[in-house]
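Fig. S4 source data, part A: sequence.
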Amino acid sequence: MVPDRRVFTPAFYGWLLLITVLSLLRFSNDPDGGLDIPHMDKAVHFLFYFVAAILGSLYLREATKRTISLSKALILSLLFAVVYGMIIEVIQSALTDYRSGEFEDILANSLGAITGVLLLKYLFSGKRQQKWKH
């Protein structure tokens, strides 16, 4: 009997913890180390939620022992990532005096999650759909 090895469960929860901590930490006045890259923070938001949506979908597959459909996993993962991103932005505004929630951050989070879900849909579509089921 093969032991039940969970890879995506700790990866997903670890990634959410990383997002949460980095979103609520106070950074020095120059968090980018002197680099002046326009909209770098939005790219980071995009990346955080791109990965979160992918890991969330794979976590759902793992947690349900591969019984969840691709469509359902993608929808649930997308909804979770978007709502989680909104919650983090509200927490930043409401509970900290050094961070602010921004609509543009919610947009970057959501676009990252949508892109992650679309990538998984592409990777597991058509003939590759069988890879999701087995």
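Fig. S4 source data, part B ends here. Residues 38 and 74 are 31 Å apart (CA to CA).
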